[in-house]
Amino acid sequence: MDVTHVLHMNGGIGKSSYANNSLLQKNGISLTKHIREEAIRSLYRSTLPSCLSIAELGCASGPNAFIVVSEIIKIVEKLCKEMNQKCPEYKVFMNDLPGNDFNNIFKSISSFKEKLSNEMKSQIGPCYFYGVPASFYGRIFPNQTLHFLHSSYSLHWLSKVPEGIENNKGNICMSITSPLNVLKAYYEQFQRDFSLFLKCRAEEVVEGGCMVLTFSGRRSENPYSNECCYIWEVMAKALNDMVLEGTIKEEKVDTFNIPIYNPSPSEVKLEVLKEGSFTINRLEVSEVKFESLLESEKGESFNDYGYNVAKCMRAIAEPMLINHFGKAITEELFYRYKEIFNDCMSKEETGIINVTMLLSRKPYARSI
Ligand SMILES: C[S@@+](CC[C@H](N)C(=O)[O-])C[C@H]1O[C@@H](n2cnc3c(N)ncnc32)[C@H](O)[C@@H]1O
């Protein structure tokens, strides 16, 4: 699978769009607000920038792309008043892969600014938006230009499906039945990708600048833990059931693997320490319960976890599934997903594990 070209969330604002099916992620982002608050207060006080550069990496499309930008501007504007400082200008960089629905983001910018000004009850400093359509596993910004980077639920996506996992039959990612070499290949791909990510950001972030990164990860050090790929294992089961009924060819499922790795806190920590350019200020684990999906933003309450999680998974995975299996299977697949998910949930309650870290850029080495 060519991740750069195939991976994107469902665009638009329709009923299967990421914009309308990302409440789980929104709830997860709210769990880490205290970390961002601490980071931006300390960053602003120590640097007092006249222009604050913020980047949202793996922004997708829809309301979640604006949550953190809005939080940051509110905090900074309040600090400026308290400190009697002129408000800075804001440069906001929205990054994702080129297939992302950037237009949807651009169309929302004016309503975002209006809503923010209304909530602040005052004009905010000038705020300029830029789209950055490229993989964050490479350089995407000029040297030393960014103050604050945020990324949620994006860095567990690998740059590619690891090589040498042809024997991961019947699975679509790491699973309890995956052979050991498959787990090793996924972990090594994660190490290569995350260390490259850190190396690139180390050039782009200003001294003292910071990054808040939330991975969909795991608590346990055991890579066979079912905290890991639970939501994907439900999809594997749905696909395998369709193989048994002859709707999908077995070979098609055997050759479908998702480029995802859910790291533990110690695995992310190890890569940061190895790369060496960032200080780890915080490393926390939290859990977004699937229950939190039952309170929809529109006040509708569907007492059906499976229905909500299946919609969320569809918004994330449909383009990738269509690319491999074709369009004909998706309705049936997500109907099955919902049924299987509800069955699993009646046996054990689970959620998504967040691994969040706050990193700050160490001083650059000075030449004498
Ligand atoms: C589940 S969405 C998360 C969106 C949003 N941050 C949120 O929390 O709701 C993951 C996003 O990461 C993006 N992504 C994955 N790999 C990427 C990469 N290498 N470079 C840039 N974006 C990437 C995907 O295209 C997708 O839009």
CATH architecture: 3-Layer(aba) Sandwich
Helix content: 40-55%
Bound molecules: S-adenosylmethionine
Strand tally: 7
CATH class: Alpha Beta
CATH topology heading: Rossmann fold
Instruction: Report the biggest beta sheet as strand number plus sense, adding barrel if it closes.
Output: 7 strands, mixed
Strand order within the widest beta sheet: 3-2-1-4-5-7-6
Q: If you average the pLDDT, what whole number results?
A: 88
Q: Cα distance, first to last residue?
A: 48 Å
How many structural domains are formed by the residues?
1
Structural class by secondary-structure content: alpha/beta
Determine the number of helices (DSSP H or I, runs of at least 4 residues): 11
Overview of the structural elements:
The protein is α/β, with parallel strands linked by helices and 368 residues long. It has a single domain (3-361), classed as Vaccinia Virus protein VP39 (Rossmann fold, 3-Layer(aba) Sandwich). It is built from 11 helices and 7 strands. Helix 3 packs across helix 4 (64-83). It binds S-adenosylmethionine. S-adenosylmethionine binds at residues 7-9, 22, 25, 29, 58-60, 64, 95-97, 100, 135-137, 152-154, 157, 159, 316.
Summarize the structure.
44% of the residues lie in helices and 18% in strands. The protein has 368 residues and is an alpha/beta fold.
Give descriptors for this structure:
single chain; 368 residues; alpha/beta; Rossmann fold; seven-stranded mixed β-sheet; binds S-adenosylmethionine; methyltransferase; MeTrfase_capping; Putative salicylate carboxymethyltransferase
